[in-house]
Amino acid sequence: MSFDRLISRSVALATIYIMLHNVAAALQYLPSTVRSCFFEGYQASQKLPENYIQIIESFFIMALTEVLSFHVNNPQEHGGVSDTVKYITKEHIPLYLQGESFLFNK
Asked: Of 11, 27, 50, 81, which sees the most CB atoms within 10 A?
């Protein structure tokens, strides 16, 4: 593989990663009841793969972890971080590990 092709492919993969990360980050601030509307609007301008829900749920958990990591250094946030971690590990992680979707009902 040529260097130019390798760079082009790397840029394409990075672009996809950033897109998935941004979608997941946005979803964490939307109620589950409107997330399907978000995807309808998003897909009007950008095609998502068939298994996008599973992929986005992976990025969703990662985005939640990033937000919590940002707040963990602030002692005033420890209670909220603790409650959120308990919620995620109870409501999202088990479903995700079992291959069940949580994005539209939690």
From this structure: 27
